[in-house]
UniProtKB/TrEMBL annotation:
PROSITE patterns: FE2OG_OXY. This is Fe2OG dioxygenase domain-containing protein. It holds the Pfam family DIOX_N. The keyword Oxidoreductase applies. Belongs to the iron/ascorbate-dependent oxidoreductase family. It comes from the Eukaryota. Keywords: Iron, Metal-binding, Oxidoreductase. Residues 183-296 form the Fe2OG dioxygenase domain. The keyword Glycosyltransferase does not apply. One of its GO terms (molecular function) is metal ion binding. InterPro entries: DIOX_N, IPNS-like_FE2OG_OXY, IPNS-like_sf, Oxoglu/Fe-dep_dioxygenase_dom.
Length: 334
């Protein structure tokens, strides 16, 4: 285990990001992140550049938002279109339906077990593809400003991680930054209300079903309740807990990055289920998480990353724009 790989949690490497940020051992950090992405599609980063107090502030305000009455939350409604991911979605409205390709089975799945979660999503203010949808002034003072501040903090962190990814591929450090300049990204606040363990066990309801993320990369902050699980790449259908690690941001590769890397990197299927040992009188406690979904600039066409293909290992995919790829996936999943 290298000096920057501090431990492994259920197969996912815990990597110290500080030597990349301070420049003392950039290549070792870059190699550790890329190797973890190749192994599991996930990595925990500690000593990352997002201040702890900013994460805590966002979680506090997220809880305040979800504690509002349904009537007030619905004043910032998510549009019916699955391609406009902004605003508030109530519990049971969305249903992850990825990796089900038969239309009859898809319909049955959506009716059988709704996703019992609620969310709020936003992006940059000037996004022409997906304009933000905010609460009216005075409903929750400071909410809009805190969300936007946090969005841009995560964007700066994302760019730093992309620098490490580039070095991992033995490319110039700014290679991926040129594809992530706008950003066409999404900040999501998530609340999983308390539910009975029995209903989750019987799958009459779900929190989030098995899926992979669509974009380039996801940065995830989660509370200590737990429940996130990732599929074992060597044993499809077998899931392993990906628990809270104090001080860490969890980062995972999306489908677009897997394609971009000519499948060098894994985009691993994951889900949220009942956490072990957290039941109180048969009830599973509320869970809060904050994922930040990174996408390549929508108007940029990307080809397979240099070094991921050769005569012996030819390109598997044609060039594609991030907008075409992500919009197709969003429309099919909502």
């Amino acid at each position: 285990m290298s000096d920057v790989t501090l431990s492994t949690t259920n197969g996912i490497k815990v990597v110290d990001f500080r030597p990349f940020v301070d420049g003392t051992n950039k290549q070792a950090v870059a190699d550790a992140i890329l190797n973890s992405f190749k192994d599991t599609g996930f990595v925990y980063l500690i000593n990352h550049p997002v201040p702890k107090e900013k994460i805590e502030e966002m979680f506090v305000l997220s809880k305040k938002f979800f504690d509002l009455s349904m009537e007030k939350k619905q004043l910032a409604p998510h549009p019916p279109s699955g391609t406009h991911h902004r605003g508030y979605s109530a519990p049971g409205v969305e249903k992850i339906s990825q990796h089900i390709y038969d239309m009859d089975e898809l319909a049955k799945n959506r009716i059988k077990a709704p996703d019992v979660k609620e969310s709020f999503e936003c992006g940059r203010e000037e996004d022409e593809n997906m304009p933000n949808i905010w609460l009216p002034d005075g409903i929750l003072p400071g909410f809009k400003e805190t969300c936007l501040d946090f969005f841009w903090l995560l964007y700066e962190a994302e760019l730093t991680i992309w620098g490490a990814m580039a070095l991992g591929f033995k490319l110039p450090e700014d290679y991926f930054k040129a594809y992530h300049t706008k950003p066409d990204n999404q900040l999501r606040l998530l609340h999983y209300p308390s539910v009975t363990a029995e209903d989750l066990a019987k799958e009459t309801i779900t929190r989030i079903g098995a899926h992979s993320d669509f974009g380039s990369m996801t940065l995830l902050m989660q509370d200590d309740v737990g429940g996130l699980e990732i599929e074992n790449p060597q044993k499809p259908g077998t899931f392993t807990p990906a628990p809270y690690v104090e001080g860490a941001i969890m980062v995972n590769a999306g489908d677009f990055l897997a394609r971009w890397s000519n499948d060098t990197i894994r985009s691993t299927i994951h889900r949220v289920r009942a956490p072990s040992g957290k039941f109180v009188e048969g009830m599973i406690p509320d869970r809060y998480s904050i994922p930040y979904f990174s996408s390549a600039d929508f108007d940029t066409v990307v080809d397979c990353i240099p070094g991921t293909w050769s005569e012996e290992n030819p390109k598997k995919y044609e060039p594609i724009s991030a907008k075409d790829y992500v919009m197709q996936r969003l429309a099919a999943s909502y």
